[in-house]
Specification:
Archaeosine Trna-guanine Transglycosylase, Chain: A, domain 4, 7 strands, alpha+beta, about 35% helix, 7 helices, about 240 residues
C-alpha cells in the first residue's frame, strides 16, 4: 500500500507541472499562515487547480491531483509581515486521498484584498484557536514520476500541431512560421533531445485555459500524456 502524508493545499487558478517555477505573492492571512508553517517545516505545500464544482467550508476546493511546490525563496515585501513574495519549484505530483477542512468557514461577502476582510479572518481564527489551521490540508499519495523517453519524431509532431493551432487561432491575421520559431527559442523549446519537461512547457503555451492542462498533469504514462497533449494541440 502506497504511503500517504498530510500537506497544506493551495488551490489556484493554474496547473503547476513538476520542475516548473512558480512565483507567488502571499497576502491572505490563511496563506500567510501556510507559508509560515512551511518555512518551519520542509518548505513544501501542494498546488492544485481550483475545482469550480466544489467548495470546502465555502472556500475554493482543489482538484484531486496536484503538484508539490517547494519554497526556494521567501521575502517580506513591505517589511511588515503582511505581504510575502515566495518563489517555488514543482516537484512530484500527488493524488488527494482525503481533504482536511480549514478551521474557519469563508465569511459572507469576504473580500481577500481588503483590510476589513483580513481583520474578519483574524477574529474568526482567534475565536477558534490560533493553533488551528486556516488553510485546507489533505492526506495525499505521491504519484510516481514518468521516466519514459520521447522520440524526436514525436516531439516534432507536437511542435507542428502547436504551430498549426497558433496560426489557426490568429486568423484572419497571418503568423509567420519564423515568428513561432522565435517563440520556441524564447521559451528554450528548441531541442534535439526532448524530455517530459519540454512537453509540459509546450502544453502550457498551447492551452487557453488551465482546465485544459489538468488532464495532462493527471496522465500516468508517457503514451497517455502524449495522446492528451496531441488532443490539446489539435485544431478542432
Amino acid at each position: 500500500m502506497a504511503k500517504t502524508k498530510t500537506i497544506p493545499i493551495f488551490p489556484l487558478d493554474l496547473v503547476l507541472f513538476p520542475r516548473q517555477e512558480l512565483p507567488l505573492r502571499i497576502f491572505e492571512p490563511r496563506y500567510k499562515q501556510l507559508v509560515d508553517d512551511c518555512m518551519l517545516g520542509d518548505g513544501q505545500f501542494g498546488v492544485c487547480l481550483i475545482d469550480p464544482n466544489n467548495s470546502v467550508k465555502g472556500w475554493n476546493a482543489p482538484q484531486m491531483v496536484g503538484t508539490i511546490a517547494k519554497i526556494t525563496k521567501c521575502k517580506d515585501v513591505e517589511l511588515d509581515g503582511l505581504q510575502l513574495h515566495i518563489e517555488t519549484i514543482g516537484r512530484n505530483s500527488f493524488k488527494i486521498k482525503q481533504i482536511i477542512p480549514p478551521s474557519i468557514p469563508q465569511p459572507a461577502n469576504y473580500d481577500p484584498l481588503s483590510v476589513e476582510g483580513h481583520q474578519e479572518i483574524f477574529e474568526l481564527h482567534e475565536q477558534k484557536s490560533i493553533k488551528e489551521k486556516m488553510y485546507i490540508q489533505a492526506e495525499v499519495e505521491m504519484i510516481p514520476e514518468i521516466d519514459e523517453s520521447i522520440s524526436l519524431q514525436r516531439w516534432e509532431t507536437l511542435v507542428k500541431l502547436w504551430k498549426e493551432k497558433i496560426i489557426f487561432q490568429a486568423l484572419p491575421q497571418t503568423v509567420e512560421p519564423n515568428a513561432l520559431d522565435h517563440v520556441l527559442e524564447q521559451y528554450y523549446l528548441t531541442t534535439d533531445t526532448p524530455t517530459i519537461d519540454y512537453v509540459y512547457s509546450l502544453s502550457a503555451l498551447g492551452a487557453k485555459d488551465p482546465n485544459e492542462l489538468q488532464p495532462i498533469l493527471e496522465a500516468t504514462t508517457m503514451e497517455n500524456l502524449l495522446q492528451r497533449v496531441e488532443k490539446l494541440l489539435t485544431v478542432k
